[in-house]
Design goal:
Length: about 90
């Protein structure tokens, strides 16, 4: 069931792929690995886009949290309304 040649082939592929990725990573120029902010260009378009991306992600997180909180407020109001209705029908 466990074929040794197949597992050896898989190991060889993973090993070669790992080394290839490592060589490509080390061969990349250092300028490509850093953003302009790291080099002191705070007013570059890339820095502005990064800041807008951060603001966008924060807006998404706040929106999801607000929707979650409003759903629980809705559930509390419905439970209160159902409790009032059950009290009024119990008194009759």
């Amino acid at each position: 069931m466990n074929d040794p040649s197949r597992s050896r082939s898989l190991f060889l592929r993973v090993f070669v792929s790992s080394w290839l990725h490592l060589i490509l990573l080390l061969a990349a120029p250092r300028v490509a690995l850093a953003c302009p902010v790291c080099f002191g260009q705070n007013d570059s378009p890339l820095a502005a886009a990064m800041n807008l991306g951060i603001v966008f992600m924060l807006v998404i997180v706040v929106g999801v949290l607000a929707a979650f909180a409003s759903f629980f407020i809705y559930l509390m109001r419905r439970a209160r309304m159902a409790a009032r209705q059950s009290e009024s029908t119990a008194q009759c």
